[in-house]
Amino acid sequence: MPNQKDMDENARVLRAKGGDREAFGELYDVYVKRIYASIYYKTHHKETAEDLTSSTFFKALDKIRSFDSSRPFAPWIYGIARNTVADHYRALKSARPIEDAWDLPDDTDILRDTETNLTIDTVRKHMRDLSSLQREIITLRLWDGLSYKDIAEIINESEGNTKVLFSRAMHKLRSSMPFNAFLLILSAPNL
Amino acid sequence: MKIDTDRILSELYEIDPTFREHEEALREILSRLPETKPNVVVDSAFVMRLRQELIREPVSGFSFYDLSTAFTPLYAHRYAFATLALVLVVGGSIFISQTGDTTKLAISTVPAGSFGSLAQLSQASGDARASAESAPSAKSFAPLGLGGGLGGGAASDMPVPNFLTRYVYRGEEFTIPATGYVYKHSTDAAAGQKLVNALGGMRFGVDTGSFSSLTVRNIEAAETRDYGYAINLYIPSGQISINANWDTWHMQERSQAPFERSDVPSNETVLAIADNFFAEHRISLEGYGEPVIDQAWLDMPEAVATSGATMPAYTPEMINLTYPLTIEGLPVYESWGAPVGLQVTVDLRTRRVSSVNNLTTLGYERSEYALETNVQKIKDLATGGGGAEFLKSGGSTAELDTPKPVLMRYYRYANSRNEELLVPAMLFPIKGQSGAVVTPLVKDIVS
Fold this sequence. Notes:
- The complex is a heterodimer.
- Chain A is mainly alpha-helical.
- Chain A has helices at 4-17, 21-43, 46-63, 73-90, 108-112, 117-129, 132-142, 148-155, 159-175, 179-187.
- In chain B, strands 1, 3, 11, 12, 15, 17, 18 and 19 form an eight-stranded mixed β-sheet that branches. A seven-stranded antiparallel β-sheet of chain B has the order 4-5-6-14-13-10-7, covered by helices on one side. A two-stranded parallel ribbon of chain B has the order 2-16.
- The termini of chain B are far apart.
- Chain B is of the alpha+beta class.
């Protein structure tokens, strides 16, 4: 049963689909900080995150008329953000696939945002062993609080596979390092 | 950020009951999670400015505002589509005319040592130690989506950390020639500038001539038909990528339909899908070897019933293939052992190609360089000498087999651009596993 919040959002979506720019602005107000944060987790660079956030919402504005309003809005806008980040890194020339800032060989951007360099080497070494998809699922579930169903839609996977991927990511973190380091990885600031 | 600990735990136990053994520790972790979330501060001026731009009504006809989005076509306004088509046609014709047939292998020889000293290659390119230390050592090796990864449409890359494994050489004796060719990827650096010149006569609402050294770097266009694609041309490196335009792929129906392991098509079918795509779009595979299909998902267990709960089997919905790049008979590898080549992803639900990456122009210059002929030195490099820590608490030993000559890819940042170099190397297969260790041979690098 949809709650009041969902109903309000659906109403905004319907108005935005009809061409009401202010309604789209209201959706923007709800999601801009979450989308910015989601992009920032992957880029660790303010200007890049702003550019990609801007791209995300312009793309959403362009496509809102064809959006299926029977579906939840959050996975859709997160999915656009995700693809925008992927396109950004795909355009970079690199010796290895780069899907987010964790794959960059230069630590500068990430170190800039950390307060504790002491833990970052340990954290980085083991987080790098995860695939970009695994890191993404962990942050979407544990930081953004999205449901497995929403995450599944964002990453184009079934809900069952998403749960399996999350579980395997957690197992991998725990098995690839001593347990106290596993605690560190989930406790490290600005991870 | 508040976390419903009991709910998260309940979800974890449902997925994998073995997490129950660590309940106390997990509760502590979850209780501390609110502190771990990065403190991301959004610039309020940026938020307000973007909102104003978004809710502004579009103007009729061409305007700088509309056309400023024309070079990022996935959100291009409808007025810009015609411009995009023209840009793509003009850009594509310049791109192709300047680089020749983009898919033909073309190699020219330049004097020995023409690429300068290779001794100062950056960490980003990978150095001799990194190539040995970063090599995967177990079945979970998954370079560029091959083997051991979790697939799911993303390029998995989950090598087991090298500090867990010590290598021992158990192959036959081999020799190394005194010299070998280093290859440098050549592109037309001026192609982007020429494109700007060609567009200079068009009225965009901005005078491109008023900007100095302007060059087009990226062109992208997307099909809006059913199961359409988006094509991206990255002009500086001569690289083309083709990706599904997911908005046209009926994703809603997809997420609701079940997909079981039995639905995964055979390798022959997957290969046929890829071959048909190349034939339909007249993409030449000259310069690429036989495709290698990612089989790692087969290593994952079937659904397992444990203590009354069932952990479902992983079923991939995407399969990756690599068509290895081969230069004058030598296959090309990354420094961490992954084959370099054309990356193709096949969407198993729709049985269509969903992406093609690393399609690039195949023009190279080659220049002769001295190689390290001390075989023991190369063996030592391959077995990890020089820095890899060996865990006292664990670690295993893996055996390296007789190496074969290959080319290893490096990147070097010079003259304000990335240069791709392919250097002579040896690939040491890891016995009994799918991974390999790749060691460069150029004396500059090894020294």
